Amino acid sequence: xxxxxxxxxMDEFNASNTREMEISTEGFHIHLSKNENSFQSEAAPAxxxxxxxxxxxxxxxxxxxxxxxxxAKEQHGTTIKAPMVGTVYLKPEPEKPSYVSVxxxxxxxxxxxxxxxxxxxxxxxxxxxxxISEILxxxxxxxxxxxxxxxxxxx
Length: 155
Fold this sequence. Notes:
Blueprint: H1 3-15, E1 20-25, E2 28-33, H2 60-67, E3 78-81, E4 86-89, E5 105-106, E6 111-117, E7 120-125, E8 130-135, E9 142-143, E10 148-154
Antiparallel strand pairs: 1-2, 3-10, 4-6, 4-9, 5-8, 6-7, 8-10
C-alpha cells in the first residue's frame, strides 16, 4: 500500500464505529485499534486476498502509534462496564423508549441495557444508585469485555 492509502485507511477507521481492524497481505501488515487493551496476535494471521498493490515497507509500530490517542479528559462518577463481549441494545424493542437516559435516576439493580451474545440476551443492571451522567455507547454497538457503557453520579 502507498503511504496516502494507509493515511486514508486510518482516517476512515477513525471516523467509523469499528473498534479494531487488522489487514495482512503479502509483505504488508497493519493493526489499528481504538481499544485501551488491543488484541495482539502472536501467530501470523491468515492472509487476505486483495488485488496486488505496491508494498509500502514501514515499521508497523509507527502506524499503530498514530492511531492511539489517550483521552486526557478527567472522568467523574462510577462506570457501568460490559461484563461480556456482544452487541449492546439500549431499548427493549426498537419502538420502545430506552431503558435509561442522561439525567435519569437509577437504583442498584435497575436494568440499564441488554447485551446480546450468541443469540442470548443478557440484562445489564446498575451496580450503584445514582443519576446517569453519560451514555458511552450507541444501540447496536459491538462492545468488548470491561468496556465502559454508562457513567453514574452516585446519590
